[in-house]
Design brief:
This protein is mostly helical. Among the domains are: about 45 residues; about 35 residues, no CATH class. The chain contains 3 helices and no strands. It starts with a helix and ends with a helix.
């Protein structure tokens, strides 16, 4: 009988301790949540006040005419070669990149035909925004 009373008292004490700790955890989490919400509200209010000062009425948009159609982005000579103007622009770009370092443009060639449809689909799927 003594062992039974000891077991019941330990069981009751265990239940009481567990529930008291759970209630304390609920209180601590609730208070912490309210502190975080207050901090976020004050941060949001500061941002709104900062944005209110910088708010300026935007001018009315101007209607633009549609752009002319571009038929050929890369002009070709009669022989299918790259024109001299394009080569000069590429050489100027290389000169701007390398500056005072010694450099030489040896050849300008067109890139290959490009990727296949499967390759383009892979690039699009891997670089598209989420």
């Amino acid at each position: 009988m003594d062992n039974m009373m000891l077991a019941l008292s330990l069981l009751l004490a265990g239940f009481i301790i567990v529930f008291v700790v759970l209630i304390l955890l609920i209180i601590i989490i609730t208070v912490y949540g309210k502190i975080i919400q207050a901090a976020q509200r004050s941060s949001k209010n500061r941002k709104e006040k900062k944005n209110m000062v910088k708010t300026v009425k935007a001018p009315e948009p101007v209607k633009a005419e549609p752009a002319a159609e571009v038929k050929n982005t890369m002009p070709d000579d009669e022989n299918g070669e790259i024109p001299g103007e394009i080569i000069a622009v590429i050489a100027a770009a290389v000169d701007a990149v390398y500056g005072s370092k010694p450099h030489r443009v040896r050849a300008v060639k067109r890139s290959g035909k490009g990727r296949s449809a499967w390759g383009n689909a892979g690039v699009i799927s891997n670089t598209s925004p989420f």
